Amino acid sequence: MTISIAWVTPYGRRSDVSSFSKNILLELSESLEPVGGSVTIFVNENGPTYWTHLPIVRLSGTDQDREILSSFDFVFFNIGNNSGNHQYINWLAVSIPGIVIVHDMVMQHFVAEEVFERFHRKDFYARLVGEYYGETGLCTVGQSQICSDALRPIYAPWDTLHVTNMPLIEPFIECAAAVVVHSAYAEQFVAARYSGPILKLALPWDQKPCLSPQDLDAWRDATITRAVCQVVCFGYIGRAKCLDLVIAAFADSSLLRHSARLTIVGYPGDREYAEELKTMVHARGLGAVVEFEYSVSDERLLLLKQQADLFVNLRFPNTESASGSMVEQMNSGKPVLVYPSGCYAEIDDDAAVFVRREDGVRGIVNALKAIVSDPQGRIKIGENGRAYARRIGRYEYVSSLLEFLREHAELLRSRKKLEVGQRNPAIRLSIEDELWLDRLVKTRRALAGLHRPVYELAVAPFQTWDRHTLTAFVTIGIFGQSAGSAFERECLALLSRNQRPDFYRIIGIARIFLLVCNGNETTAYTELLGSVTSSPMLCADVFVLLRSLGDAGFSRALYIGILGRWPNSDEVNLCVDGFSHRSVEVIIREFLTSAEFNRRNASQSAVARFLEWCDQEHFCAFDRPNLEYGLTMRFSTDFLESRGYLGSGWHQLEPGHVWSRSPISTLIFSVSDDIAVAELSLTITGRVTGTSQTGRRTLTAGCNGAAEIIMKIDDDEWFSFEVDLRRLSNGGDDFVVVLDIGPTINLAAEGIDHDTRALGFCLRSIRLHHKDIVEKPLAIGYLKVAA
To answer: Beta 658-659 vs 290-294: how paired, if at all?
Structure first.
């Protein structure tokens, strides 16, 4: 098989993937040479590069990389979670349909480094999480406050157990023509997210220098009589290695302190964690028992492997396709202590020492004491582990790899030709290729947003995401507000009363204001904002969202949006001071009635509508009151507190009721934490008007996006109906009940009355109660009650 292969990889001492590639490439080049094949190494440089006799190209991070790689028959991408070692590789894997070799199943750290540090795009992190994990993932991001500008982050999602549920590997495998993994665990993990060809191999045992037979014989003789057992941990030093638990085990056992010594070896990538470990050793008086060696040479590491009596290689959570350090340790012929999870669970029962993670430090103590006290057991387990590790070397690895290429050559080549923009419409694709191409296009469109200006909102979420995921993204990702907050409720209500294109426009304009008003007049967005505010910006919905800017930012928004100019600091301060003793509605009215605004020659009808909205919406009242169980809340000028339960779309309160003024109106409230919401319903009492002219009316109602109930109304009498309460999936305690009455009616225009208002649904009262104690609505759709 005459083929040309491009092998894209780190290739230096700072990455263990480099050692893997160095080993495989020796065998791969030798296997291809007799048939005229060739392999070229493309290197993501990060420090000194290994020497090689093979052709080598250093990646530049430019379009030239892609052009050159596209000329090869097959391209292998060694993707990984470390940005320094894999930055160019990971992005190229997205742009070229190649064979992706998965070394890390969790790519959160890479994405975080790129999004937060390189591109400074917090919103894009939320965009990706929403794309792949929906509202649940966005709630995790929101709770962390990692996307907030005003609040200090509580935690980084990529440093928590959330990474296994939100690995963010999807973008880097969905564009692949095929995937290679190194364990059954990784195969199952990837198969749940990728439907193309997957080759399961294992890391070869012969990529690192190992002990000779003579070294092993000498160790077997020495370990039987050795008074102090040498315990070694080596590899990247990070929290997932659970080294703090190993140190705690030594602190809790006098036998271990007397009969064992612990050496922790590796690169301290998580320096904070490394310092915590040192502090822990000092605080527990283990300075003579625990030793640290950072960034050792290959020669020193080989000596430590010779001296070791056993290794500890605990891992939680499991984020790697396989463990190179585990293979290296087992190949040394010494026992290895592991958790039976992830790829470690595949080790033969007699080839390692297993301890359950749920047994905690005590489990580690017992396992270490048992193996420290049993030299013959150490020898036997070490022999079995060595045999297990040696089931596959570089020859077997490369042979399987080339066989995989032969088996899937046609598919791999065809998918390479299906590049976006290069598809031949005359070629009919298989169902599998159609699905693969759809995912590739979706992924690339999502990732393309990272390179667009921050004010350009992606259209896809506004077109295809469900309403709760979309409003969570707008709240958390675009405006940096908290999940389940009053702001999110306002977004949900806003989406309920607007078509999605209008919602997109409103969010887009508010986003530009957000960028400018939280910055300064010289920002790059001011010119863009000028095109939006060339005439007065009198969109009430935009001002609802702009209230999230805080007093100073909102003051700037008023000056820019209504008066069309940037305010000076004195004007901002004066406006901010006004918020302490005047309502927002009053201040907006002052702007709209000022002499400066009158000179802008704004549409008087638009100004009138905006002034009416100021009187009615009370949009600054974000903190909704609790709706008490069993209490009937009546909407009337006699009960002004009832106004707090009204969301959008209502006229002012009247004696005994309140009318909606638009087809869609909302009720917004919260419920006490101690109430089981699943058992509750809300009874709503109201009526319509003008059925003698309009005929049967239809009212639909639902809570927090739940399935709506539909009622047919034939007259203007009072009636009651029930809406089951449903919590937001983010766990928030707030409820948005959406009422859709359809077209409003103007009684004066119909010759019924002198009322010229647009009237929709007339609300009299609401009551919270248990479902089982209220009479159900009649089959016709509503239950009439006495007036």
So the answer is: unpaired
* Number of other residues whose CB lies within 10 A of the CB of residue 394: 20
Structure tokens at 525: 């967005």
Angle at 341 between CA 339 and CA 345, to 5 degrees: 95
Report how far residue 275's alpha carbon sits from residue 771's, in angstroms, rounded to the nearest whole number: 57
pLDDT at 613: 63
| Tokens read off for 53 | 């006799």
pTM (two decimals): 0.77
Classify residue 755 by its DSSP letter.
-
52 forms bridges with which residues in the sheet?
none
**Tens digits of residue pLDDT in 415-454:** 877 764 455 566 667 778 788 888 888 888 888 888 887 7
Q: Which residues contact 303 (CB under 8 A, 6 or more apart)?
A: none
Distances (CA, A) of 144 to 139, 271, 481: 9, 22, 11
Listed residue (313, 318, 271) closest to 164, CA to CA: 318
401 within 8 A of 101, measured Cβ to Cβ: no
Count of C-beta atoms within a 10 Å radius of residue 364: 26
What is the DSSP code string of 373-436?
Answer: T-HHHHHHHHHHHHHHHTT--HHHHHHHHHHHHHHHHHHHHHHHHT-TTT--TTSPPPHHHHHH
Residues in a beta bridge with 353: 337
Query: Parallel, antiparallel, or unpaired: how do β-strands 99-102 and 178-181 relate?
Result: parallel
266: left (phi over 0), alpha (psi -120 to 50) or beta: left
Please enumerate, as own/partner, the contacts of 776-780 that have beta carbons within 8 Å and a separation of 24 or more: 776/722, 777/711, 777/720, 777/721, 777/722, 780/712
DSSP string, 672-737: -TTS-GGGEEEEEEEE---HHHH-SEEEEEEETTPPPEEEEE-SSS-EEEEEE----TT--SEEEE
Is the preceding omega at residue 55 within 30 degrees of 0, hence cis? no
Q: Which helix (H) or strand (E) holds 109?
A: helix 108-112
Q: Within 10 A of 375 (CB to CB), how many other CB atoms are there?
A: 17
Interval 48-92: pLDDT, tens: 999 999 999 999 999 999 999 999 999 999 999 999 999 999 999
Q: Mean of the per-residue pLDDT values for the chain?
A: 86
Region 171-193: mean pLDDT is: 95
State how far the Cα of 657 lies from the Cα of 760, in Å rounded to an integer.
13
Q: What is residue 663's three-state secondary structure? A: coil
Residue among 287, 241, 240, 298 nearest 262 (CA): 287
